[in-house]
Amino acid sequence: MVDRLGNHTNLPLLAWDNRAESQGILTALTDRLHADPVAVAPERADLESPTLQRIAGYSADGISQMDILIYMDAGLPLGTGIGERSKEDLTAAITRVSTTLQPYPAFRGWSWAANWWLTKHLADGANSPEQKTAYIAAVKLAREQGKWDPVLDTVSDQWLHYAVAKQAYFNDVLHTVAPGR
Description:
This protein is mostly helical. Helices cover 48% and strands 7% of the residues. The longest helix is centred in the last third of the chain and has 17 residues, at 129-145.
């Protein structure tokens, strides 16, 4: 199974809903169990969130769970595009999900890719204004005279490496909090 537990809209699913009515229901049930001498132990009301119950069920059935960190249509390089979060936010999400799911055998790790789009490519993928100028001139030269300039390779290598760099960063965080995943 693959799920988007790593994005900010699904992170709260790792715990019970913190809205007042949900907490009130659980508190009322615990209070009732404490007050009734023939009731089951009040700790029986201390349940995992439905999401964690589901993952426990996956574990019992031998199903693996991988999580997705980023929204669909996220941008490359890191920090650009739709719904991008800071490195700190991404690190916190990887840490929270991995740490929470580490005890569950179903937790296999992460699927990092999610329809990533290059937001800085071609001339915009250059690392400096000078390199961008050289790239634009090299494209013009290649189109007009068929001559190749190595700056074309240099700049394209830079923007083609964005996904590799993003995955390496995410894996470093993961292996710190959940070795072997």
